[in-house]
Amino acid sequence: MVVLTLLASLVLLLSCVDAFPSRAKGPASILPRPSIPHFENPLEGLPVVSRNGTQLPDYTHVYYFNQLIDHNNPSLGTFKQRYYHTYEFYELGIGNLSDDGVRRILGGPIILSTPGEVDASGYTTYLTNATLNGRIAQTLNGSTVVLEHRFFGSSNPYGDLSVASFRVHTVQQAVADLVYFARNAQLPMPGGDALAPGKAPWILVGGSYAGALTSYTMASNPGVFTAGYASSAVVQAIVNFWGYFEPIRQNMPANCSADVEAVITHVDSVIASNDTTAISALKSTFGLPLGHNDDFAAALLQNLFPWQSLQPDSGPNQAFYQFCDALEVQNGVSAPASGWGLDYALQAWGTYWKSAFYYQICGDDDVETCLGTYDITNPFWTYTYTGNAARSWQWLICTQLGFQQDGAPTGQPSIASRMVTPEWGLRQCTYRFPGAFGSNAAIASPNSTGINAVYEGWNTTVENIVFASGTRDPWKESTVAADGCTNAGSDSQPHLLSDGFHCSDLLIREGAASASVKSVQDTAVEYMAEWISQWKQTA
Ligand SMILES: *[C@@H]1O[C@H](CO)[C@@H](O)[C@H](O)[C@H]1NC(C)=O
Ligand SMILES: *[C@@H]1O[C@H](CO)[C@@H](O)[C@H](O)[C@H]1NC(C)=O
Ligand SMILES: *[C@@H]1O[C@H](CO)[C@@H](O)[C@H](O)[C@H]1NC(C)=O
Ligand SMILES: *[C@@H]1O[C@H](CO)[C@@H](O)[C@H](O)[C@H]1NC(C)=O
Ligand SMILES: *[C@@H]1O[C@H](CO)[C@@H](O)[C@H](O)[C@H]1NC(C)=O
Ligand SMILES: *[C@@H]1O[C@H](CO)[C@@H](O)[C@H](O)[C@H]1NC(C)=O
Ligand SMILES: *[C@@H]1O[C@H](CO)[C@@H](O)[C@H](O)[C@H]1NC(C)=O
Ligand SMILES: *[C@@H]1O[C@H](CO)[C@@H](O)[C@H](O)[C@H]1NC(C)=O
User: Fold this and answer.
1) Beta strand pairing status for 103-107 and 92-97?
2) How remote is the CA of residue 316 from the centroid of ligand 5, in Å?
3) Which of 57, 209, 329, 403 has its CA 20 to 30 A from that of 244?
4) Which ligand has the shortest distance to the CA of 142?
5) pTM score, two decimals?
6) 506 CA → ligand 3 middle, Å
């Protein structure tokens, strides 16, 4: 009997944990995080050899740093923050005279990056010369570090992702982590205990949210990092982030854009009519009998999100293009730029969901489980296990960043339904983090104004930082390349623009597929070399 009960509880426990990955498709993760590109480290498993022939630990070797739990209260102690490191390109050299007249030995720069809102273990490529980080190290004789962001992967100040633990999950703490690491890390390399800023030059590199952190860290802590590189950096926190869909609308095939816009206009007018029979018929065209109209409208965004993972070298066989082909190709013939029009596009889009797409994103889950967001009793919302990146990211957007991917305002063409409003997403915050926004709050109110005021957003005055943006990046409207940004940059804050997608310029192979991406990469390395050559030892 005892054995049976034990077994039963063990199975229950395992199945909760096991159930988690399949529930990652559940309601609250419906909006994609910005995230830098993930791709397999092409050099993983190969021996890593330093410039002088010494065999080094594998890229996947894990190191830990004793990071402060709370930078506002160091007496609370430390937690283990995971990081990866290599010094395969590091060279010692003779540096310039410092102010006290003593000539000291110094090597190339330390290139620190965090992959941001992900488990860092999949991002060791950012140590290598397959990425811009490693390219900079290789050119400047530097060493690379990939530091996991607090509350992601295995870097957790406390053992869970509860509201109480999230007291120390803020942009301010993440910024302070990068500074405290640079000042205190004893890097596992020759002379690694004497490389703090002042003794060695540091470069901070980041993409996407971590690109914003790069700007924020340099803005709020001058003098720590000699140079910075911020790719697709979402520096301006925006709550109603309808601009997410603008680069997609403007760069997707014209016929597909025209037809998607026509269908979405129709969907919005049917929903606005309050005609329940017509609304039900519309939902069944897609096989999506969701109880809430805004959940249905939001489900259609799922066809647009694959745009974010495109890269200049993406083949034609990507999910986004499969969707457009389904709408635009009839019997082997493509629609003209104006599309086929509403009637055909509506049926074709519905058929695409019913025949293939629903199963691709929902598997065997029923429609409310997969795409509904109103069942507050679903344990999905309140799981506090560590390693749930979607939950940790949602805390940041609910409290500080906003970034709700919504329909455009009336009068502006939109490929996203106007039924999807900031309230649709911010209501979910109160399900996920009960009590965190006041016991009666129906929606969260992220303090994006505070973030932009403290860290300067688009108007950042940081020097020795390169901002690199891509015209096809869906996050472009939050970067310094946004239409609303009046800061044009300068020679000490160059704003580089390629035809890339999200963080394309961080990946060396994307430079091979796009001349403008390659030009950004080459120019950035030149700026880094110039700024590092001006560095002087001060400690
Ligand atoms: C990148 O680094 C690897 C060693 O990690 C080296 O074999 C390769 O030649 C380098 N690639 C380039 C383009 O320098
Ligand atoms: C890198 O190291 C090599 C070998 O010591 C040296 O010739 C070169 O000038 C160094 N490059 C930089 C940018 O310091
Ligand atoms: C070069 O190799 C020696 C031992 O062979 C080692 O002590 C030294 O730290 C190495 N330097 C670098 C920069 O790898
Ligand atoms: C539909 O219902 C909403 C909410 O009850 C109401 O504000 C709106 O005027 C109605 N629209 C039409 C076309 O009846
Ligand atoms: C029309 O759609 C097809 C299929 O997605 C695409 O290959 C083609 O480039 C589009 N043509 C125009 C003019 O938009
Ligand atoms: C928003 O952030 C700013 C800057 O940190 C702060 O001064 C302000 O009190 C915050 N507002 C709220 C409502 O928390
Ligand atoms: C940025 O600067 C411009 C020009 O000075 C100003 O109009 C704008 O309000 C500033 N934006 C923010 C977010 O502070
Ligand atoms: C030393 O300083 C001079 C003048 O500031 C500069 O031209 C040179 O590149 C510096 N060298 C190194 C290795 O930093």
Assistant:
1) antiparallel
2) 11
3) 329
4) 2
5) 0.92
6) 29
